[in-house]
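Ticket #632: bound-state structure for manganese (II) ion.
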Amino acid sequence: MILVLEKGVTQQQVERLKDLLRSEGHMVKEIGGVEEQVLGIVGKMYRESSYYGALPGVERAVPISKPYKLVSRELHPAASIIKVGDVTIGGDRLVVIAGPCGVEDRKTTMDIARVVRKHGAVLFRGGAFKPRTSPYAFQGLGEEGLKILSEVRQETGLGIVTEMTSPSQADLMMKYVDVVQVGARNMQNFELLKSVGRIGKPVLLKRGLSATIEEWLMSAEYILSEGNDQVILCERGIRTFERYTRNTLDLTAVPVIKKLTHLPIIVDPSHATGIREKVSPMARASIAAGADGLIIEVHTQPEKALSDGPQSLYPEQFEQLMRDLYAIAPVVGKQVDFAYLDKATIMTRPRGESKAPATVVYSGVPGSFSHKACMQFFGNEVPLRNSSSFREVFTLVDSEQAAFGVVPVENSLTGSIHENYDLLLEYDLKIVGELTLRIKHNLLGHPNAPIDGLEKIYSHPQAFQQCREYLEKNPGWDLVACKDTATAVLRVKDGADPKEAAIAGEGADQVAGMAILKEGIETNPRNFTRFVVISRNESLPGPQNKSSLIYSVSDKPGALFETLGIFSRYDINIVKIESRPIHSRPWEYMFYVDLETDITEESRKHILAELTEKTEFFKFLGSYNKGARANP
Ligand code: PEP
Ligand code: MN
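RESOLUTION: The complex was predicted; output attached.
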């Protein structure tokens, strides 16, 4: 039952109401709403909704229409993010869990762990208790296997995901494991579900071999009803009449689950297909379908694996898959981060000389693309601060009031954001990272407002440019420029005028409770913005494979050519070159150059020296990770 409380209800009244409901045997959850204060109640003994609607402080009571309650979106509209150490599942960064089917021996397990971590896995999988179809097949190493997994965590920093097959293993799970997996065969083992619920650690709940989505969610409900709401669902294929693949991967489950529940969902393409060569295509499709991550079997010698060798990827296949996911993720508004685990500690480690607080500053308001870029780069847990201009971002980072800043520098449709190029020249800060975000624009207005009744459209000028073709079809609209897209949405919301709309990205509709009047209005869907991360003293982990420079050359024939010759001679790929006017010297230019190399590496230092000699002005902006490759 969902109880919408009266406006102006006091905290004391709410507490009294909660006490009453609890005394009647209900579990009570406060649901954070922007507009309304809402309580969700779940329990075995329900009265008529009219009883609850008449309780003091309650405006109305709405029954939850589904048989599952705690897992339903009705009770918990916002997506849940599950934390496993430094890893967040269901947030802006995709999680990939990888490892062998079973833990076989210390050396093999450790070898696999090192290789999957190197290529971007953030959690390690491996069974110590294997539920096998045949009693004669390898059953797992038991506690010995769990000890090996603990060593893996110790050495690689990867959290451990392993299966629990009986409530009698609860103590072992408490001792050794980060995420408790409930296997497909045990999805409806209700005693086991209650037991994992009580353990209180995150649970990976696989879909049963022939379970409907509703049965699967009811199993999740068991775990939540024990007070553990850290459940990650895992689609791993269901049994159909098709025998070519081991199971039939039901990818439809991903969007269906997203709609029905707030819990995150990942996909296991290994058990779904059972065939190595089918794993990567289905993994890519899963991410495209909107999954929050993947769990994949990888083995250094699959032909010798004691279980599921034929579906285990070779390390090189896993590496290639991760690169593909890196390319696909931004299209669906997510990110694969090869330095995920290393970055997770940035904000908590002692930070040397730096006095700056562990904060990331961006320009704009929550819900803006810059805000999203921060969370995709640093994770959903990072302390953020927003500012009112790009200059303020630079000033706050320069004065060490924030350790990092995130600013957009170029867009694939409209080109460079010149203000930030000029600020990079003016301030003495370093570029320490970069990130590409897909920019999908929607027309947002008041619910049910007709598009042909619109008169005024608010947005950022860049967004107007990126939606030029759509706007040209509506020449009567008055375009009003705002500081950023999220501010534009708030203005329209506050104006409460159905003749006004805003152009902004996905998620902005939820932030402000607005409706999407028209989706995807950018001129070309291949619309990406590149952001850079700036800092004064901080560095970021991970290999540096890109460098940025600014320089000017003397006003004589061949001067620029000579500098470019240096890059050619040393086989350095230039990925971008752009000229910007020098403010005090009309018709003279600075060149902004991005190189595909770490120019600060010891063996390349002489190149920097040569460049300094051939240029009039030279400024090194930083070496950083372009991300497309995992650790070498
Ligand atoms: C496993 O993950 O190794 C496993 C046994 O999976 P499932 O329960 O999905 O068959
Ligand atoms: Mn397996």
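RESOLUTION NOTES: The chain has a mean pLDDT of 92.
TICKET STATUS: resolved
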